[in-house]
Amino acid sequence: MKDIKVKETSDASQKEKLKKQSKTNLNIFKDKPLEISGIVIAVLALFLTIWQGYETRKFNKLSLKPKLVVWVWNYYDTGGMVMKIKNEGVGPAIIDDISLDIKNRDFYKVSELNGHFWEKIFNDEHIPDSLIANSIQHSYLNAGGYLPAGEEIVLFEFLGDKEHVINHNKIIDFIRRFSSLEITYHSVYDDKDLTKTLFEQRKTH
Q: Does an H or E element contain 83, and which?
């Protein structure tokens, strides 16, 4: 019985200490209300600042988001065609790569060929320089180059040349073998994106 009383006394003492500690903690809040309020306000202000920063960055990303689209038109009067890349977004599109897949030939990449992109393609197709100079316009964007919002470039254009049937048909056969055009790019916030165009059988003639 003696041991049990000692234990009960010990438990009661422990409870009393906890009560005193709780009162002490409460007294701290009562004695220093301004200091405690200041800490709470500072924590809330920090949270608000972080949240506002996140929302601002999110808004900035959306306000500078690029969107590349590929437009292809046929020139039915001359039998030619034009292929353009346009940035319909609200921020600059920074090019990672442009790839053109041509049936029965190869998969050409700007990142590998750079300034020789179209030169390599035309050489493989045995298209003479004289024909290129008279009937074809072409351009490209190197990896790291950019297309501002609202602007466009003519990637490839064939004006048509029905007066010279052999040359005309040679280019038309070349165009008909365009399989796909793929453009990988990113925004100024490094958000990646991809535009891929699958070419239907061209009805140019």
A: strand 80-87
Distances from the Cα of 204 to the Cα of 71, 154, 158, 199, angstroms: 16, 18, 11, 13
pLDDT band at 183 (very low <50, low <70, confident <90, very high): very high
Q: Which of 71, 74, 104, 67 is nearest to 181 (CA)?
A: 71
Closest CA to 162 of 106, 193, 205, 124: 205
**CATH code of domain 66-198:** 2.60.40
| Location of structure tokens 């292929």 | 83
Spans of all domains in the chain? 2-62, 66-198
